[in-house]
Amino acid sequence: MEATDIMIYSKYFIKFSAIIVFFGLLLSSFSFAQSQSPPTVGCGCSPPMPKRFLVFFKAKQADLNSGALTIIGEAADAAQHEKGAFLTVQGYTSSKHKTNADMLLSRRRADNVVDVLVADGVSKRQITVKTTGAFPLVRNAPKALIRYNRRAQIVIYAPTK
Q: What PROSITE patterns does the record point to (predicted)?
């Protein structure tokens, strides 16, 4: 094996490792299972886990593509099946700096998602909008993975009974 072959293999290994780390971080940010039991509410039962939906955007844009509309539609359906549910829509950017432009862009992203949720039948009174700006889902990642930081997150909280 020559030195150039080793360099090529190590380059691909580093990229593959970064992808594995990214998906590990992505999966760890969502609660699929809990190692400890959740706190109980007045009835002695556990509160339901919130449902989370992620909508991704192109760089410096707040436009929704067909994939985003599908995800938002699924979130709207889930919210309508939960009587008394409330939602949080939070917009993010991929920049490393919290600038006014980032805050405005993350607000536009969240507002666009809210507009579609409302058009799909969710009451605006059920929705809280949060503007975050730059808050990475993926930290210190290769440029190919930074795009996952450009997102809006929809969280649906079912009421406790």
A: OMPA_2 (PS51123)
